[in-house]
Design a protein that fits this description.
Chain A: The chain crosses the membrane at residues 21-39, 45-63, 70-88, 94-112, 204-223, 230-250, 256-275, 287-306. Chain A: This is Ion-translocating oxidoreductase complex subunit D. Chain A: Keywords: Cell inner membrane, Cell membrane, Electron transport, Flavoprotein, FMN, Membrane, Phosphoprotein, Translocase, Transmembrane, Transmembrane helix, Transport. Chain A: Belongs to the NqrB/RnfD family. Chain A: Part of a membrane-bound complex that couples electron transfer with translocation of ions across the membrane. The structure holds 2 protein chains of 2 kinds. Chain A is mostly helical. Chain A has a single domain (16-329), classed as Ammonium transporter fold (Orthogonal Bundle). In chain A, 60% of the residues lie in helices and 0% in strands. The longest helix of chain A has 24 residues, at 40-63. The relative contact order of chain A is 0.11. The longest helix of chain B is centred in the last third of the chain and has 72 residues, at 422-493. Chain B has a 6-stranded mixed beta sheet with strand order 1-14-13-17-15-16, with helices on both faces. Chain B has a 4-stranded antiparallel beta sheet with strand order 2-8-7-4, with no helix packed on it. Chain B is α/β, with parallel strands linked by helices. Chain B has helices at 17-20, 123-132, 145-155, 173-180, 182-196, 210-220, 239-247, 267-278, 309-315, 356-359, 372-376, 383-391, 395-400, 411-415, 422-493; strands at 25-26, 32-36, 46-47, 54-55, 60-63, 72-73, 78-87, 95-103, 159-164, 200-206, 225-230, 262-266, 285-291, 299-304, 325-328, 335-336, 350-354. Chain B is globular. In chain B, helix 4 (173-180) packs parallel to helix 6 (210-220). The termini of chain B are far apart. Classes of the chains: A mainly alpha, B alpha/beta. At the A-B interface, helix 1 of A face strand 16, helix 11, helix 14 and helix 15 of B.
């Protein structure tokens, strides 16, 4: 007989590793599409990210004198590295992936105290670190379906040898550059933005961020499996779409419309896979919605007026910092009490 | 019938079909019964019998002591074997004061008084008879039923809610009693309603019990008793939650249902009330569900109070394979027990022998702040935050977050993907808090006594000083007078 146990004597068939595995499964379509779109260098980059994260986490956990196996088996480190890989330029050099992954799991997560203790989303923290430290490598994009051979791919990833057609701008980057040259939106977007390509993801961008439709499918799958709720993602999409629509109506030549914004950059990945990270988002559904809307709004503001063409990662980190504040002010109403926590009046009517 | 929403809640796998099929069976008369003196919330009953006494079924063998207490009756006829300690139906299994009764096999009732027209009885009379019958809340809380009737009558109850929710997985004893004894239950409900002069009577039954709903509807036909079909969700059978779902109102924090004009009783309690009032039978037996993956033939049985659990397990043909855990009550709020010699008491709704696969226990991993527990909490608490405070030994922080409002339903623990025993944290903290409050009261009492003592000492000191001063003054006056007299005498002699 086991020692005395406390109720409940039943448990829902869930566990953290199952949750993580479901999220990874939801990421698979967009990831495989990215592999198909960009070829072997993308696969190598992804594999390196995962490998570095596993080794890095094993090392730091061992140094802390904790058990390595349960930490690696919970799947959170793999998910972080996977998300980071999807947000990298597909032909980025190997050390970008390795450095980013190590930063994410060691500084972004374990130094805060491990799973559940970090304030900032580790993948986004790593991405921003890389973007600020290595702006050239992090904004060297490639044209889809270049499909280099195996040897070429090794040269790209490990020797940083560029291939023809590599230096191209993403939609948001291009628009930003054209604006600075005084070119209007209607001309800037010509030949650069096709709504259907943007939807499918056959466009210049990060490894796994371009396939808006596949990411959306993955996100809906997570909602259906009750891993995430719809509130934060919908709020983030609205946070981008509402101001985009408003400003586009006011001045269509200076402000891109909602569709351009929704289908560009890392918005879909951010909305369904990044801001739904339980650790760094608020506790309540209302708090999560507010958090999501803030992420969306900040993304749009940074894209529109900021120095960088893309803003999802910055927006997420800024809102991560606001999460404790949101949790402080938005709490559920307790049964039998009003919203201020005062007991309800006795009413026999 | 309008049904209001329940917030939070979980959908644990029902597993009710194991025991629900057959009708209620009667356990053969046990040879020995172990009847604890405390089977209710409040003070234990005082035994009225001695070793060697022969008693009849239904005879009062221990009487209520104080305001919150309940009488105990002999479950069968026989001889009192011992007045001592026996293992308690509690996780500790520690012995508690128990009357041991050896049955004589005759199961002979004491002379009981039946009532032709129980509805002619005065409300106080009904409550008195319920008290005399030793009835407690059979839903599990075991609050003395008569006390609840009196409290409710005095504070003016408008709505009587009868709880047929039975949301705990595995348990089907209330389902079966509603199917088989609906007429008696409805009469019991009407008696309770007349005892508290309720204007509205609602019976809430979860929609996963269509047969019970049909039986109760048929029995309630033509009476003021309304059957309300509620969605199946745990913890629908909790008093506060059923009130919320059926009336849309909430019991104020720290208050009682009577504060909003509501009284809640369980269906099995209503049946016991009918048996006591119309037939004069005290509460000496109850329906218990025997179930769990390790039980061969799950069923519902009518069991005499005091029957060792071992006999129930044997009646259900024993184990299919060794049980990983034995539980009294349902799996969500029930208590583990380790000795099968423990008896069935008035509050025992189920005897479960669970397999490891049914428990789904795993080692706890770190909290990932997924807030699944927040969405599951029917009270609107933040279990993850409360647990973090308790882990940091910050009890007042946990109280600020609503620890005292937690109903210990276990929904948070049930859904936690990290398998953190959240409700265990809260119960531990509540126990600690109660101990602290007791210590504080004791300290205050000690302080008061010490203050009283020093005040008394000071007073005595003052009085002493005053008396001394008085004595001194008197002495001085006397001396002065003597001196004066001496002087006067001297003057005179001169």
């Amino acid at each position: 007989m086991n020692p005395i146990a406390h109720s409940p004597h039943a448990h829902a068939p869930v566990s953290i590793s199952k949750v993580m595995a479901t999220v990874l499964l939801a990421l698979l379509p967009a990831t495989l599409f990215g592999f198909w779109l960009y070829g072997w260098p993308a696969v190598e980059l992804w594999a390196l990210s995962l490998l570095a994260a596993m080794l890095g986490e094993a090392l730091i956990v061992r140094m802390q004198g904790r058990k390595v196996r349960p930490v690696l088996m919970d799947g959170s480190g793999i998910l972080t590295a996977w998300l980071l890989a999807l947000s990298l330029p597909p032909y980025a050099p190997w050390w970008i992936a390795v450095l980013g992954s190590l930063f994410a799991v060691i500084i972004g997560k374990q130094l805060f105290g491990g799973l559940g203790q970090n304030v900032f989303n580790p993948a986004m923290a790593a991405r921003v670190m890389l973007l600020i430290s290595f702006p050239l490598e992090m904004t060297t994009w490639t044209v889809p379906k270049l499909s280099p051979g195996w040897l070429d791919s090794l040269r790209i990833t490990f020797l940083s040898q560029p291939l023809d057609g590599m230096a191209s701008a993403s939609v948001l980057g291009h628009v930003k550059t054209e604006f600075s040259r005084g070119v209007g939106l209607d001309q800037a977007l010509v030949g650069y933005y096709a709504p259907l390509d943007a939807l499918w993801g056959s466009r210049v961008g990060s490894l796994g961020e371009t396939a808006a439709l596949l990411l959306l499918v993955g996100g809906l799958f997570l909602i259906a499996r009750r891993i995430i709720t719809w509130h934060a993602p919908v709020a983030m999409l609205l946070g981008v779409a509402v101001p985009a629509l408003l400003f586009n109506l006011i001045d269509g030549n200076h402000y891109a419309g909602p569709m351009v914004h929704l289908l560009s950059g890392g918005l879909m990945l951010g909305a369904f896979f990044i801001i739904t990270d339980p650790v760094t988002s608020p506790n309540t559904v209302l708090g999560q919605a507010l958090f999501g809307f803030g992420c969306g709004l900040l993304t749009w503001i940074i894209r529109t007026w900021g120095g960088y063409p893309e803003g999802v990662a910055f927006a997420v980190l800024l809102m991560n910092a606001a999460t404790p504040l949101i949790d402080q002010y938005i709490k559920p109403r307790i049964y039998g009490r009003d919203s201020k926590g005062v007991a309800l009046p006795v009413n026999k009517g | 019938m309008k049904i209001f929403g329940l917030r939070g809640g979980v959908h644990p796998e029902g597993r009710k079909d194991m025991s629900v099929q057959g009708s209620i069976r009667t356990l053969p008369l046990p040879k020995k019964l172990y009847i604890p003196l405390q089977q209710h919330i409040g003070a234990p009953a005082i035994p009225l019998v001695s070793v060697g006494d022969t008693v009849l079924k239904g005879q009062l063998i221990a009487s209520a002591q104080g305001t919150v207490s309940c009488s105990v009756h002999a479950p069968t006829s026989g001889t009192i074997l011992a007045l001592g300690n026996h293992a308690a139906p509690h996780p500790s299994g520690l012995p508690v004061p128990t009357i041991t009764l050896e049955s004589d096999g005759a199961d002979q009732w004491i002379a009981i008084e039946t009532v032709e027209d129980p509805f002619a009885l005065a409300p106080e009379d009904i409550a008195e008879r319920v008290a005399a019958a030793g009835i407690v809340g059979l839903g599990g809380a075991t609050f003395p039923a008569a006390l609840k009737l009196n409290l409710s009558r005095n504070s003016g109850v408008k709505t009587l809610i009868i709880n047929g929710g039975e949301c705990e997985p595995y348990l089907t004893c209330d389902d079966r009693i509603m199917r088989e004894r609906a007429v008696e239950i409805v009469e019991g409900i009407r008696l309770i309603a007349s005892a508290v002069a309720a204007q509205e009577v609602l019976v809430g039954i979860e929609d996963n019990k269509p047969e019970a709903i049909a039986a109760m509807q048929a029995a309630a036909q033509g009476s003021a008793v309304k059957i309300a079909v509620m969605p199946s969700m745990y913890p629908m059978g909790s008093e506060k939650q059923i009130i919320q779902v059926l009336t849309g109102h909430e019991v104020p924090a720290g208050g009682r249902p009577a504060d909003i004009g509501v009284l809640v009783h369980n269906v099995a309690t209503a049946y016991a009330v009918q048996q006591a009032i119309r037939l004069g039978k005290p509460l000496v037996s109850r329906i218990v569900t025997i179930s769990g993956g390790a039980i061969k033939a799950a069923c519902n049985v009518e069991v005499l109070i005091g029957t060792p659990v071992q006999e129930l397990i044997e009646f259900a043909e024993g184990y299919t394979q060794p049980a990983a855990r034995l539980v009294l009550g349902g799996p969500m709020m029930g208590q583990q027990f380790t000795q099968t010699s423990v008896p069935v008491v008035k509050g025992t709704s189920g005897v479960l022998a669970l397999l490891a696969s049914e428990i789904g226990q795993a080692e706890a991993s770190p909290c990932i702040r997924c807030s699944t527990c927040v969405r599951a909490c029917p009270v609107g608490l933040l279990p993850l935050e409360m647990a973090a405070h308790i882990r940091a030994a910050d009890l007042s922080g946990a109280v600020t977050l609503g620890l005292k409002d937690c109903i210990s339903c276990g929904s948070c623990s049930y859904v936690c993907p990290a398998h953190i025993p959240l409700v265990h944290y809260f119960n531990y903290a509540k126990g600690d808090l109660a101990a602290q409050e007791r210590a504080k009261l004791k300290q205050e009492a000690t302080k008061k006594l010490a203050e009283g003592r020093s005040e008394r000492m000071a007073r005595i000191e003052r009085e002493r000083a005053a008396a001394a001063a008085k004595r001194k003054a008197a002495r001085e006056a006397k001396e002065r007078a003597a001196k004066e007299a001496a002087a006067k005498a001297a003057e005179e002699t001169v």
